[in-house]
Amino acid sequence: MIKFFLMVNKQGQTRLSRYYEHMEIHKKMLLEADVITKCLSRTKEQCSFVEYKDFKLVYRQYAALFIVVGIDDTENEMAMYELIQNFVEVLDKYFSKVSELDIMFNLDKVHIILDEMILNGRIAETNKSRILAPLLVLDKMAES
């Protein structure tokens, strides 16, 4: 099961966070700070899978952004690694060359995309067209 999904920049600022298990706010802040420090301190040559407390971290770097997924022992690390890639491809398709600013100023749309892909900590959809369909309908409604 996916426990959380984070997107952070190289300065350690969280740009997106989604938790799939209840956690108190101060515990989220401590967890994010620790996870971000752990992932940002690693070199590019090191593995993108990290054992952390009672779960695993799977992360991937795209330019100045890191995407970090926390999973339990039952989840496949490679599947999560590819999910991160798929998420970025969907963002690229929607925003055409997504940037950190796109994420910051369109956080609601990024959350919609993520919610279409992951439901209750499980992968729900990976087809890019199906993921973007509700968002494109919302865009058409906003135009008219």
UniProtKB/TrEMBL annotation:
GO cellular component terms, A-Z: cytoplasm; endomembrane system
Listed InterPro entries: AP_complex_ssu, AP_mu_sigma_su, Longin-like_dom_sf
SUPFAM superfamilies per UniProt: SNARE-like
Compartments reported by the entry: Endomembrane system
Top-level taxon: Eukaryota
Annotated membrane topology: Peripheral membrane protein
Function: Component of the adaptor protein complex 4 (AP-4). Adaptor protein complexes are vesicle coat components involved both in vesicle formation and cargo selection. They control the vesicular transport of proteins in different trafficking pathways. AP-4 forms a non clathrin-associated coat on vesicles departing the trans-Golgi network (TGN) and may be involved in the targeting of proteins from the trans-Golgi network (TGN) to the endosomal-lysosomal system.
Main localisation: membrane
Similarity remark: Belongs to the adaptor complexes small subunit family.
Descriptive protein name: AP complex subunit sigma
Quaternary structure annotation from Swiss-Prot or TrEMBL: Adaptor protein complex 4 (AP-4) is a heterotetramer composed of two large adaptins (epsilon-type subunit AP4E1 and beta-type subunit AP4B1), a medium adaptin (mu-type subunit AP4M1) and a small adaptin (sigma-type AP4S1).
Alphabetical UniProt keywords: Membrane, Protein transport, Transport
Organism from which the protein derives: Latimeria chalumnae (Coelacanth)
